[in-house]
Write a structure and sequence with these properties.
- This protein is of the alpha/beta class.
- It has six helices and 17 strands.
- It folds into two domains: 242 residues, 3-Layer(aba) Sandwich (QueA-like), CATH 3.40.1780; 79 residues, Beta Barrel (Thrombin, subunit H).
- The protein has a nine-stranded mixed sheet with strand order 2-1-17-16-14-3-12-13-15, with helices on one face.
- Helix 5 crosses helix 6.
- The longest helix is centred in the C-terminal third of the chain and has 14 residues.
- The two termini are 24 Å apart.
Length: 341
């Protein structure tokens, strides 16, 4: 199977640049896994498509405002840092731009001195290891001066940081939003609960590797980036109970899907679990936990469209994407949604 098998033409004008208001007013395409039939609704109508035997599994990871702009001590040169991973003891792995200004030993200040850092190492991949100095609470300061690390295909400035967070985000640590969940409002979640739909949460901190293109010609040769996940016992119990009564486990987003399948693969049963996963789901994969998926419309030739194709079939998914293009659906992070069941 080739990466090019997942290519489709997408007009640039259909890449959503700003989120819709309200959140649940986005369009919702339905795709039947068994027949390939496509339907058209709005996201708030998802209440009509789920039942009291079903459960949703949502990723409660919260995006770090990880893009910070610093001034180099001594020269006043401007450098942008993108925080990737907390290494502990106020040390982070980060991308620096331009990298030539961030050599080992260089010092920078951010937010008129609210944060300071020193580059303490440079990796073989060019990533910097930086150590911060500050007074106060680091994440509060970062929230004050940092910018959301929006994907490179979004050119518009985001007016409200919270629009790149899900309303149920809780665990800080992602470099990108689990965007399928952006469509939910508190009111919509209440309506689903009133109908009897159960909800469980997992945490998978999304890494920037989610935007890394597949460069391998053969799909099987692609190496996934690793991301940290956690499934609490309460969610494991919910999945087990849903399966036992014949309900459907619906993953909200590819990150929730990968977490569920990682736990099934690692543990062989439904139990509390955490660790690092580089699971790569593409056609031919046999799902062990997920029965359905709520997801956005993804980039051509991406690991994300490959995952959706594993669940519903490459042909039906590409056919549905063709319909989405014809019908003017909005694509990617701030775009419309798809329900695959």
């Amino acid at each position: 199977m080739k990466t090019s098998d997942f290519y489709f033409d997408l007009p640039p004008g259909q890449i959503a640049q700003t989120p819709l208001e309200p959140r649940d007013s986005s369009r919702l395409m339905t795709l039947d896994r068994r027949t390939g039939a496509v339907g058209h609704r709005h996201f708030y109508e998802i209440v009509d498509l789920l039942g009291p035997d079903d459960c949703l599994v949502l990723n409660d990871s919260r995006v770090l405002p990880a893009r910070i702009y610093g001034v180099k001590e001594g020269t006043g040169a401007h450098v942008e840092f993108l925080l990737l991973e907390n290494k502990g003891e106020d040390t982070w792995e980060a991308l620096a731009k331009p990298g030539k200004r961030a050599k080992e030993g260089s010092r920078f200040t951010f937010g008129d001195g609210l944060l300071r850092c020193e580059v303490v190492g440079v990796g073989e991949d060019g990533n910097r290891r930086i150590r911060f100095q500050y007074e106060g609470v680091f994440f509060q300061l970062l929230d004050q001066i940092g910018q959301m690390p929006l994907p490179p295909y979004i050119k518009e400035k985001l007016a409200d940081k919270e629009r790149y967070q899900t309303v149920y985000s809780h665990q800080v640590g992602s470099a990108a939003a689990p965007t399928a969940g952006l469509h939910f409002t508190p009111g919509l979640l209440d309506k689903l609960r009133e109908k009897g739909v159960k909800m469980g949460f997992v945490t998978l901190h999304v890494g920037l590797g989610t935007f890394r293109p597949v460069s391998a010609e053969r799909v099987a040769d692609h190496k996934m980036h690793a991301e940290h996940y956690y499934m609490p016992q309460s969610t494991a119990d919910l999945i087990r109970a849903t399966k036992a009564k014949g309900g459907r486990v619906i993953a909200v987003g590819t990150t929730s899907c990968r977490t569920i399948e990682s736990v099934a693969q690692k543990e062989g049963c439904w139990k509390e679990s955490q660790g690092w996963t580089d699971i790569f789901i593409y056609p031919g994969y046999e799902f062990k936990g997920v029965d359905g998926l709520i997801t956005n419309f993804h980039l051509p030739e991406s690991t994300l469209i490959m995952l959706v194709s594993a669940l519903a079939g490459r042909g039906p998914v590409l056919d549905a994407y063709g319909v989405a293009v014809q019908e003017g659906y909005r694509f990617f992070s701030f775009g419309d949604a798809m329900l695959v069941v």
